[in-house]
Amino acid sequence: MIFKRVLGGFFLAAIVFLFFSGLQAEQMSTICRFKNITIPVDLRIEGSILTKGAYDLEFVRYPSPILYYLRIMKKGKILKLLQGKEFAYDNSSVIPRKPLLKMSKNTAEKTLNIVFESGTDTKIYERVRASYSFEYVED
User: Fold this and answer.
1) Is residue 68 part of a domain?
2) Number of structural domains found in the chain
3) What is the CA radius of gyration of the chain?
4) Are 31 and 118 in contact, with CB atoms under 8 Å apart?
5) Which are the contacts of 127, defined by CB distance < 8 A and separation ≥ 6?
6) Are strands 67-74 and 53-62 parallel, antiparallel or unpaired?
7) In this structure, is residue 8 part of a structural domain?
8) HSE (CB half, 13 Å, CA atoms) of 119?
9) Per-residue tens of pLDDT for the chain, all 139 residues
10) How far apart, in whole angstroms, are the C-alpha atoms of residue 126 and residue 89?
């Protein structure tokens, strides 16, 4: 009898946990979306290859703990969700007014670096800067 109560309580707790973990995934807030951005090389991401081409890039923030993610999307479908590294502005940095996306290719390390800056005119989460680095595959 006690075993059934414990098992029932565990089952109920598992259902509540799954319900709230699904809600937390939806709590990511979009900072900015860039549409039709051309990725110039094939990227190796988490063991799979993302072919070069045009993608939508969406930068999102997870509230607790504060983390920044990049959603790589094509035709509204999320292909990858990757965590970035936030880095603060120093005194010599120029902060853009509008959201800015910078992409650079490091041929020595074979990486494609993407830097996102939210700018000062963003309605929420202004002065955010995050970087993402991806290994690329040579043709």
Assistant:
1) yes
2) 1
3) 19
4) yes
5) 89, 95, 118, 119, 120
6) antiparallel
7) no
8) 13
9) 675 665 565 656 555 454 555 444 558 888 889 999 999 999 999 889 999 999 999 999 988 788 999 999 999 899 999 999 988 777 777 888 899 999 999 999 999 999 999 888 877 888 888 999 999 998 6
10) 12
Residue listed under structure tokens 């041929």: 107
In this structure, is residue 105 part of a structural domain? yes
Q: Rounded CA gap, 8 and 14, in Å?
A: 10
Residue reference for tokens 């990725």: 39
Secondary structure letter of residue 127 according to DSSP? S
Which domain, by its residues, includes 78? 23-137
Distance CA 112, CA 24 (A): 30
Q: What is the pTM of this model?
A: 0.73
SS3 track for 17-42: HHHHHHHHHCCCEEEEEEEEEEECCE
Q: Which two tokens stand for residue 46?
A: 């988490």
Is 51 part of a structural domain of the chain? Answer: yes
Q: How far apart are CA 126 and CA 99, in angstroms?
A: 9
